[in-house]
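For homework, think about our next protein:
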Amino acid sequence: MGQEYTGSNLLKFAVIGDINDGTETFENVVARLRKEEHIAFLVLLGDCAADPSQNLHTYFIEEFAETGFNLPTFVVAGNHDVEAGRFGYREFEKLYGSTDFSFLYLNNLFIGLGGIHDSEKLRETLTFLEKTLQEKRHLVNKVFVFMHYPLQLYDNPASQEWRKEFQNLFQQYKVTYVFSGHYHRYLRTDANGVVYLITGGGGGQLRRQGLGDIGLFHHLTIIEMKDNDITERIIPIPGASVWSRIMEQFERYGLTVLLPWVTRHTASAMAIGTIVMGCFLWGANECHYFLKRPELR
């Protein structure tokens, strides 16, 4: 497990995006992260769950806990994490803490922006960002922002206006890095002094999404700053085998769909189980009868 290092000249943290339906690969990412020393904290860039439901979030949290990894971890919401009417921001915050958050560490400012998945929450998030930068930017050295959607690639036409608002604030207050996921790959660009880094290779199935094979690999991102020099390390991670992914799908379905249904419908489950068992016993008896009567073969 990474150990927190309190030396004033070293900042080192990890970023992982888009675990989604790939918890087996995510476990490989965490195993590699354990080999790193002096990691202060981890940020997850959203889509921790395969879909927005209490059962799938519980499944992710339990799978993460099984790794034994207990470094301070911050989570921003992704589009697979929250959805009105299914699993909203209130439910998300009960599990992971504030949707939008900020903290200071070693004279640097870190801002998490999770409220970008509906118009009402989006305005609240923009206000939070502007207020945080107004109050704290002049007090710190560098600013690191974490969000799920990448501003430079997310192609929803309705997002054009708020994208500009975010970018204007990033440029005005000289934000150092903006980390995002959503795209299951690695990409990097620098615009007006701001580094935009997409690191969405934390476990979810790799998809081209109109971008070809550029940066299409699972990975872990480590950021290290020493004496004001920043180093990015993008560490490739082997994906889970096909068999492991199949078994993971069965496990997730059993724990998040089948088991809850059985719990809610005990009588129906027992009736179905009785019918299935009856059919099995009947089939076994017929097979036995067939084998005992050579003239039938």
